[in-house]
Amino acid sequence: MAYGVFRSPAVIYFGTGQRKALPRIVAQHGQRVFICTDERFFKDPLLAGIEQALKAVGIATLTYDRTIAELPASCIQEATALARDFNADVFLGIGGGSCQDLAKLVSLSMSYGDDLRPFYGEFKVPGKTLPVIAVPTTAGTGSEVTPVAVLGDPERVTKVGISSPYLIPVVAVCDPELTLTCPPRLTAIAGADAMTHALEAFTAIRHKPSSELSLNQVFIGKNIFSDVQARSAIAALGKYLPTAVEDGSNLLARERVMYGSLAAGLAFGAAGTAAAHAIQYPIGALTHTAHGLGVATLMPYVMEFNFECCVPELAEIAHLCGLPVQNEAADARDAIDAVEQLFSRIGIPSSLQGLNVTADKLEWVAKQSMLSTRLINNNPRALTVDSIGRIVNAAYAGDRSLLRSA
What we know:
Blueprint: E1 11-14, H1 22-27, E2 32-36, H2 45-56, E3 60-64, H3 73-86, E4 90-95, H4 97-112, E5 121-122, E6 132-136, E7 148-151, E8 160-163, E9 171-174, H5 184-202, H6 213-216, H7 224-246, H8 251-271, H9 275-287, H10 291-306, H11 311-320, H12 328-345, H13 362-369, H14 373-377, H15 385-397
């Protein structure tokens, strides 16, 4: 039985040069724009030119270029205070996922108060927030189209998320030229993050259709709309991500990788992610390694663990990656190899030891992973502390075969 939910910005502008439309786009939503970005903004002529173009048409701007990755509370509070004093009426998130998430969270704080803790989880945001326009400069998080913002809470070990359709930016402007200066390592990590989003969305649990499901859960599992977007993302990223990493000046590769990231964001923005993300959260907190690096390192092991529950999906992934059709089981096995080889080619570690995880922390990681209930419940195969322990032990050893015995 067909079932699906599609949530996205009101408008998505995609293509080379689309940043030039920002003055007209911003003017449709406000006249006092607070720009959330990072230290690269004024060093990159293309990015700095955005602010100049806004000022040229009479839009007042204030640029916050001190965004910190993982968004500690101090960063959010500092930016919110500045935006409030400026009397901002529209927010522009320019940069990677943290810059875009900061724009979402400052808008939320301006709309409903500085204490964000009441909004942790799903469907806690009471209504519309001040408009956010998202402009990605990396191709990975998909934050420009997703209903979630992730932040660091000093009272918690791992990151926390706020998930609500009200957090989806009103407009996304995706210009591949803005990724041309993204260095190879960041291109690889961001692109691997996007591929993991697509893979987990495509293999997520499929719930029984219900008229209440999408009203009770932001992330509803695998569905007909997320499948379309995930397929597009897997095909684009599988073909073009290595080229974008190895030759960053290749605009076609940059374009296709940005499209793949966008499509992956649309896919997991409805379907959600699963075990790889749940396990990465404590690993990231422990090792302070990049989110994309962690989820990509884990992904082949999670696919191996989930094999028995999603053979048809894995086989289709193999075909999307350009592998020949054999039989379903063989194709499904080849898909995991293909993902592992893709990630290896762009420099993703083959085991958790490459993330500086130590053996004495594996049990702790397994227990902490179970706290991400939404992600755990979205996995196609049921997860327990013991089964996550098997995944992390296999990933630590760098041996997928350890997951094939039970």
